[in-house]
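Deliverable D4.2, example record:
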Amino acid sequence: MERKSFGPMQCPIARSLERVGEWWSILILRDAHYGLTRFDQFAASLGIAPNMLARRLKALVEAGLLERRRYSERPPRDEYVLTERGRDFRPVLLSLLAWGNRHFAPEGASVALADPATGRAIDPVLVDRETGIPLSRSGVRVVAGPAANEAMRRRLTERPTL
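Output generated by the structure prediction step:
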């Protein structure tokens, strides 16, 4: 589903938000990473209306983030399992958690990240996969990829850093 005001949606951020931009979707993915798979588990955890949950689950399945699997024939019941694409969303969740704790929790963190072996607090950073070097504010240049259209190439020439 592309938004006409943006023309052909080439921005990967916009494309990603099209799939998970609604906060219910992100919370469903969070709970799926916690191991929840069944409709009633998501409903109980989130306190979401059943019709809204059904719509969000359907959209996440259509976006390829969750897979719907039948676990009971009588009565027919399905579970929702993370796909590889859904599992790849984990670093985004961890980053949102850390960012939210840093900027929107004046009372302190209600949920924190910790090393499972030592219990030491973890503060995630985004690093380059190949070199392990952290990506800093001034250390990233955004360049046009091979599929970029002319408008995208022009935009990135005018605003090359992110």
